[in-house]
Write a structure and sequence with these properties.
alpha/beta
């Protein structure tokens, strides 16, 4: 079993090697897998998205945002204000424009701060995950703290360009995923 620091370093390196065209193609394939997953769950209406930090070569979730907008779903994202340690939930207006904050995170130009109580699905950023739904994030703990405050039945979906690791030792505060979507398939935990 690899430790989280080694996995973090290994997957950051793997991602660095990805070319922009590969990231876009794999992100579109992930969106397609997500839409197949969603087809049987049309009752879900409230989705929380993270948006990609380009320098980390993250999954481009703007494809998922466009798909959910077209389906008339309600979208949310989060932001951390300077000096804060908690994520604030923002409801996104339709056709919102984004700008990059000082960390390179796409932030909506307009949004409304709301309670996260209506959220039914959260897309969770990650670097690695395992066959049991444990994940390795960027190590700041923002999402574990955020997920811990949501209703237990909220569906937690990781997005990854890669297959799962065999096993990752979770920390006590870690919140497991329910699914992880790759370009090839949807893993259920």
């Amino acid at each position: 079993m690899k430790n989280k620091q080694d996995l973090r370093a290994a997957y950051r390196q793997l991602r660095k090697s990805l070319q922009p065209a590969v990231i876009e193609a794999k992100s579109q394939a992930i969106n397609s897998q997500f839409l197949d997953w969603l087809a049987d769950r049309s009752d879900l209406q409230h989705f929380h998205l993270f948006f990609p930090i380009d320098r980390f070569n993250e999954v481009n979730t703007f494809y998922i945002k466009e798909s959910l907008d077209q389906l008339g779903k309600t979208l949310y994202t989060s932001q951390v204000n300077r000096g804060e340690t908690e994520l604030e939930t923002l409801k996104l207006p339709k056709l919102v424009a984004f700008f990059l904050d000082e960390w390179g995170i796409p932030v909506p130009q307009e949004s409304i701060m709301v309670s996260p109580s209506k959220i039914e699905v959260v897309f969770v950023p990650l670097l690695a995950y395992d066959l049991a739904g444990n994940r390795v994030g960027f190590g700041k703990g923002f999402y574990d703290s955020f997920l811990g405050k949501l209703k237990p039945e909220v569906i937690k979906i990781g997005l990854s360009f890669y297959e799962p690791e065999e096993s990752i030792q979770p920390d006590a505060h870690d919140v497991r995923l329910d699914y992880c979507i790759t370009p090839e398939k949807v893993f259920t935990f």
